[in-house]
Amino acid sequence: MAKGKKRSKEAKGRKITLKMAKNALKPTTDGKRRLDLSNMEIATFPKCILKLCDVDELDLSRNLLKKIPESIDKFVNLRWLDLHSNQLEQIPQAIGRLQNLYSLNLCNNRLNTHSLPHELGLLKNLRSLNLGMNSIESLPASVSALKQLRELGLFNNLLTSVPGCLKNLPNLDKLNINCNPIPPDNPPELDPIKRVECLYLVRESCLCDDCLQRCKAKRERLDSKTSGSPVHKRSMFAGLMTPNSVAQEDEAVWR
């Protein structure tokens, strides 16, 4: 009986109260306010945080969220939204009303082509968009309206060609499109764009089993290549794995 109750509790996830949310408020390096509810086993978007909708940054990463409500548009001042490593299957149309947003991280979810609303194209101030580690086969044409976009993560998806809309992004200078089934006879025609793989360090306990095995295999391959090097720095990152998100270069402190 006790085991059954435990499974039920895990399915519902952790309940967040307004008091808990207030305690999770943190100042940013530039004097703004960030609500950090990451890695708290949250399965349902906590309605109580709508009372804190004046925050500038919202971190709901590494939880169990399957849905983000349309009420996300209450966060009118939001400039940074991190939803990576959840179980999201759909992004609400209301996301397009977050006009101050400059960074959106949707990495490592369950998104596909139909999960991305055309309203993404309304985020005219967006500088960084991470869609890596999903099941996306193509991007909505509205992405071509993101004229301020500078960094785009599309790694570990199901793209069979480089989305044509990327040619209409004049400020895009960093693109990660690794680990997609793009045929070798269809190379990307994006020479001016730096194709990079940025890393974001996370603890092993924050990764799902599939991602953990994938990262371990990649680390073993890297170790085998560098085993002959006189300096071996693996011990510096004990308990940390990469990657599951694109890091922000202009952040003064690792989030």
Automatic annotation (TrEMBL):
Family matches, as Gene3D superfamilies: Ribonuclease Inhibitor
Keyword Repeat included in the entry's annotation: yes
Gene Ontology CC terms: cytoplasm
Keywords annotated in UniProt: Leucine-rich repeat, Repeat
Record bears the keyword Isomerase: no
PANTHER family for this protein: LEUCINE-RICH REPEAT-CONTAINING PROTEIN 18-LIKE, PTHR48051
This protein's name: Leucine-rich repeat-containing protein 18
Gene: lrrc18b
